[in-house]
Amino acid sequence: MKKLQGAHLSKPITPDLLMTPSDQGNVDLDVDFAADRGNWTGKLDFLLSCIGYCVGLGNVWRFPYRAYTNGGGAFLVPYFLMLAICGIPLFFLELSLGQFSSLGPLAVWKISPLFKGAGAAMLLIVGLVAIYYNMIIAYVLFYLFASLTSNLPWEHCGNWWNTDLCLEHRASKDGNGALPLNLTSTVSPSEEYWSRYVLHIQGSRGIGSPGQIRWNLCLCLLLAWVIVFLCILKGVKSSGKVVYFTATFPYLILLMLLVRGVTLPGAWKGIQFYLTPQFHHLLSSKVWIEAALQIFYSLGVGFGGLLTFASYNTFHQNIYRDTFIVTLGNAITSILAGFAIFSVLGYMSQELGVPVDQVAKAGPGLAFVVYPQAMTMLPLSPFWSFLFFFMLLTLGLDSQFAFLETIVTAVTDEFPYYLRPKKAVFSGLICVAMYLMGLVLTTDGGMYWLVLLDDYSASFGLMVAVITTCLAVTRVYGIQRFCRDIHMMLGFKPGLYFRACWLFLSPATLLALLVYSIVKYQPSEYGSYRFPAWAELLGILMGLLSCLMIPAGMLVAVLREEGSLWEHPAQQCLPNHPLKASRFPSYRCWKQSLNSMPKGHPTCEWQGRILPRHVTHSLGEVTVPPPFPRVVAQTNPGDAVSVLPVTLEAVPEPWFSALWLLCCSGSSRPAGQP
């Protein structure tokens, strides 16, 4: 037990909003404290962590390909429009929710326990993504170590893993510069190195027979998890320092690759192919959907990472400014990455004598086949290859930090007294468990499982979770109340733009994405391999499982509620039912309101718990009249006790305020009156 007195109120450790009064009946309270949750050591830690989380592998290997296949420069029109309609508002909403509550993706749903399943869905999605995302980092580590040589191993044919179809780029032209007739039936050394040596995919007959574990990939995956664990060992205090390097150094490497790329012969050919606007593509709905998907997945909305990072902020951190810095910085980074990628692809197409569209690929094919092949055509190829894969490593680690911190924070916030003092041990156990679950990805057929996880783990389930979150915050919690919460943090309320997006535009856009992804559903494939029906069914069930978390959470909340079954849904929908006020402990507001109270100021006793007076009277409308609270004043022996009644000022909102801070006002009432 730790004594909480007036002198201790300015300390960063804060208890629940509602506290059990001591035997003396004043504000000298006995309070149980969980271990300190912690905060960022500086504002820049949070900003760089968000930048590192959003600017990931997708900026390098997905955006450039989506841009040139959907109208080139014309793709930027729907891209920035979707950023304004969907990206920025949802980004700001998630940051605001996390910063105001100081809670993770699960505990934050004390605002309305009926929707806690949305937090569970986010946790399931981010767990599945973290398993295969670290496997991609393991591939990057494999190539990074392979680049530490004088000659890149994927530069020449003649190795044991090469076939008779292997053809080096220097042999792709004859002495007169003409293309050989059988060029379309040949395979590059980089492609065979990736598929036959790194993946050893010829040892598997399909997803049902993964084959043997590749010891080299197994060790790379182990190293990746060790790096992640060491960086999140002390939570945001350690990862917040690592991002000073991992979030900034990729920009230096990207700038070096960009300068080197634009100076190559044929670079302008690739850039022109990348940015030439084809405005007739704007008439296609597919282009707009692709732009929205790129924004949605690039910013990482709905994974819980933004909410988790913001929960470690100080209460008055300017997340409004940070929102625009991160979202616009992410968009600019994607565009610059396109210049760096397509300038090299233009040079590559000129060297091979083929059109740019025949060498351009997206996803792992770009990172592990096309770009490594382009590196072999440059002087000092091992140096440029090492820089490229080191950039991918830092980009991937930043996102992985967020995934693991989201899982650890969500669970420790649910069980703070048990897990928070042992957070480092719990983080280690999570890493070990995910490493063991990811061993199937290191087998000969591991790439098939990775593709299945990538296609279904964060597909329609993620969209359903974000739609539910948006509607629960704006419709159930209340848009006016949420804006007042932001006003309390930042000093101003969000304008019409944010309100319109939160209420209508963003949910409608996400719903359109969900419908489009269902209507345009295509079975998974990897190259020429088509997944069997049972694998497709498994993937669909994987996506549906996260969706089912939401109704399952509603059912659990209803069954755990006291009272008659008919009253359960109504009580659980309330952002904070009058008799369930302790569900949402607002640490920041508790501290702010208590610090603003002069010594001797009365506090209110509510249902056997002490409540401080808050500066506002606009708390909401009580739909169920609560018992009249008794006011207890801090007094010295012999002093008269001044007791004030408590009234609640109603405001035109259908639900009671999620932050139950009781107001003390009105005329005098005899002490002891119920």
UniProtKB/TrEMBL annotation:
Keywords: Disulfide bond, Membrane, Metal-binding, Sodium, Symport, Transmembrane, Transmembrane helix, Transport
Gene Ontology CC: plasma membrane
A single MF term (Gene Ontology): metal ion binding
Family membership noted in the UniProt record: Belongs to the sodium:neurotransmitter symporter (SNF) (TC 2.A.22) family.
Pfam families (alphabetical): SNF
Gene: SLC6A7
Disulfide bridge map: C157-C166
Species this chain originates from: Tursiops truncatus (Atlantic bottle-nosed dolphin)
Protein location: Membrane
Major location (coarse): membrane
Matching InterPro entries: Na/ntran_symport (IPR000175), SNS_sf (IPR037272)
TM region(s), chain numbering: 46-64, 76-97, 118-145, 213-233, 242-268, 288-312, 324-348, 383-404, 425-450, 456-477, 497-519, 539-559
Domain of life: Eukaryota
PROSITE patterns per UniProt: NA_NEUROTRAN_SYMP_1, NA_NEUROTRAN_SYMP_2, NA_NEUROTRAN_SYMP_3
Protein name: Transporter
Binding site for Na(+): G52, V55, N59, S298, N330, L395, D398, S399
Membrane topology note: Multi-pass membrane protein
Any GO BP annotation: amino acid import across plasma membrane
